[in-house]
Amino acid sequence: MRAALLNPCFFPEVRRGSERLIRELANGLVAAGHEPTLITSHPGTPSRSVEDGLRVIRNWRPPDARLTRRLYPDYLTHVPFSYASLRAGDYDIANAFFPTDALAAVCWTERTGRPAVFSYGGLPDRAVLADRRHKLRILERAVRGSAAVVTSSRTAADAMERWMGVRARPIYPGVDLDAFSLGNGRDPEPTIFCAASPDDARKRVGLLAAAFARVRRDRPAARLVVIEPRDPASIRRHGLDGEGIELIAQVEAPAALAPTYRRAWVTALTAYREAFGLVLVESLACGTPVVGTRDGAVPEVVSDESLGRMFEGDDERAVARALLEGLELASDKGTAMACRARAEDFSTARCAREYEDLYRELLGG
Length: 365
Known about the structure:
This protein is α/β, with parallel strands linked by helices and 365 residues long.
């Protein structure tokens, strides 16, 4: 199959959710003998390259600061170039991973009759759908013009049906189980790791820091390891300058965090409305139990108390209790293997295989 994958950004400009999913998916498609092409954009000169078997077309992305100031959705200016690249190629199927890119894919499918897939990475609700001009109209065009809509969890699929009236197909993102593997030992001090970005308010790193101060009352030697925020003012605002808190530098490759996951006793994610929770699965793959919010798709990942603990709401005392129980869980001899076994349900090979099955269905086998 010749699959066109569309996303506004890619490595090395951005290395988070959809960009990582596309890279892992492409690896699986290439391994299965298919020919994926990524159509993306960047602020520089247009280019074409082959990166680990993935053909990458980078179109120019015109400046969009004026549109952003006027509250239009992000990543609109490159869409005509992405559509032109689709029309110029000979693709069997187009899979967009961002709503504006789905506009190009839907126009392409209307012109060619070939199927388009829209992979929505978030958790739709009223606040998300109405925070930008024409955002809801763009999303409606994307979901209704695509032959299939994919979400990253069953929770997100239910929300898509509730808010958009479209039945989506949940396909969990994959984790590289070779890169995120079991380790040989944990730090001697009780260590809590948070791999979420403090710059994202939805991650509620300040709540974690406040809860950690309570944890230190019972565990004076405990440490909290957090990714350093890009905005230095966030350190004090989130309480990340407290006793026992260590800031580590941002990393380019997510797999570089694997040693930190392995050394930690527990990994914490205090975010709300998570559509999946990739950092939780990375932690489980390294044999480290997790603490997360009983909200969004987190209960789908943390399906058993042998894997970690969950809390509700925004009470720092509830978070502290979950963290203390998570630290105790780390000392159980069976925890590491239970965590690893759960992570194997979210392999990159499984993710690529499910996308491949979907493509074959839409192409008639």
